[in-house]
């Protein structure tokens, strides 16, 4: 699968992988700062953004998609950073291909399996009738019936674009993600741990990484791990605390 990507900057290569329902655009602001020091590759994962759609959506396949991109572009051994679902892709890649990356950065996700917690969002997205919408505010009004938070609606609506006939469509493969949700929630496992440097960044208000996760699944799979918490930040740590995330990432990659 040929993933869509955006390249910026020069220096040590750094791949950045977004989360569920996201696109590479979610990381643009922080990537521009990182590009002052690194050769940054922002990636749309399969079934997201401008990358191809597929019926299958597993971490094994997504890790291979990333490897194919690295090989196609002849990227020298990169560092890889992923948020949420992208963090699980990054973990899977590191555990499967440990010689193909220098360092691993995971933002607000643990390797464990998570119970379903996107049901409301998926149902809300599937309930939207794009054919009746003439402007983006029409879609926002439909979404607002189920999702009260404007910032969440804004994030989700980044997946909507104009078709050639001027109607709206989804960039992401909504039905495919719904069908594969169990795979997206699945744990990342390996018989052999990743022994290179790894950084996990946790939002202080987020519940995605617990103290128990640190001492069990994370340290079990990543033996050279640092875990940093950014107080006051939620799950979208990079959007809520970009300065702190930049400092943590930059310090980790340069030491």
Task: Describe the structure in your own words.
With 255 residues, the protein is of the alpha/beta class. It contains eleven helices and nine strands. It has helices at 28-34, 59-72, 85-96, 119-127, 136-144, 150-157, 174-179, 181-185, 211-221, 237-240, 242-254; strands spanning 5-8, 12-17, 38-43, 79-83, 104-107, 160-162, 168-170, 194-203, 222-230. The protein has a seven-stranded mixed β-sheet with strand order 1-3-2-4-5-8-9, sandwiched between helices. The protein has a two-stranded antiparallel ribbon with strand order 6-7. Helix 1 packs parallel to helix 11 (242-254), helix 2 (59-72) crosses helix 3 and helix 5 (136-144) packs across helix 6 (150-157). The two termini are 34 Å apart.
Could you write a compact summary of the structure shown?
The chain has 255 residues and is α/β, with parallel strands linked by helices.
Q: Could you tell me the number of beta strands?
A: 9
**What is the helix tally?**
11
How does the overall form come out from the CA principal axes? Answer: globular
Helix-strand pattern, N to C?
EEHEHEHEHHHEEHHEHEHH
Main sheet characteristics: 7 strands, mixed
Portion in helices: 25-40%
User: Order of strands across the biggest sheet?
Assistant: 1-3-2-4-5-8-9
Mean pLDDT: 96
The helix-and-strand class reads: alpha/beta
Low-confidence stretches are none
Using only CA atoms, what is the Rg?
18 Å
What is the beta-strand fraction?
Answer: 15-25%
Report how far the terminal alpha carbons are from each other: 34 Å
């Amino acid at each position: 699968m040929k993933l869509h990507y955006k390249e910026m900057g020069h220096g040590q290569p750094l791949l950045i992988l977004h989360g569920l329902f996201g696109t590479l655009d979610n990381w643009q602001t922080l990537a521009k700062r990182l590009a002052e020091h690194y050769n940054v590759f922002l990636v749309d994962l399969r079934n997201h953004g401008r990358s191809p759609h597929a019926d299958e959506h597993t971490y094994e396949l997504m890790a291979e998609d990333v490897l194919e991109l690295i090989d196609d572009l002849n990227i020298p051994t990169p560092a890889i950073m992923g948020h949420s679902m992208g963090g699980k892709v990054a973990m899977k890649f590191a555990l499967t291909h440990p010689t193909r990356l220098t360092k691993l950065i995971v933002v607000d996700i643990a390797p464990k399996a998570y119970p379903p917690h996107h049901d409301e969002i998926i149902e809300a997205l599937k309930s939207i009738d794009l054919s009746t919408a003439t402007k983006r505010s029409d879609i926002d009004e439909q979404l607002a019936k189920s999702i009260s938070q404007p910032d969440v609606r804004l994030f989700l609506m980044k997946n909507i674009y104009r078709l050639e006939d001027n109607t709206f469509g989804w960039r992401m493969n909504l039905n495919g993600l719904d069908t594969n949700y169990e795979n997206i929630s699945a744990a990342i496992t390996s018989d052999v741990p990743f022994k290179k440097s790894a950084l996990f960044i946790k939002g202080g208000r987020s519940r995605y990484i617990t103290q128990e996760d640190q001492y069990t699944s994370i340290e079990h799979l990543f033996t050279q791990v640092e875990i940093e918490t950014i107080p006051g930040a939620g799950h979208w740590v990079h959007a809520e605390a970009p300065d702190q995330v930049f400092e943590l990432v930059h310090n980790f990659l340069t030491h």
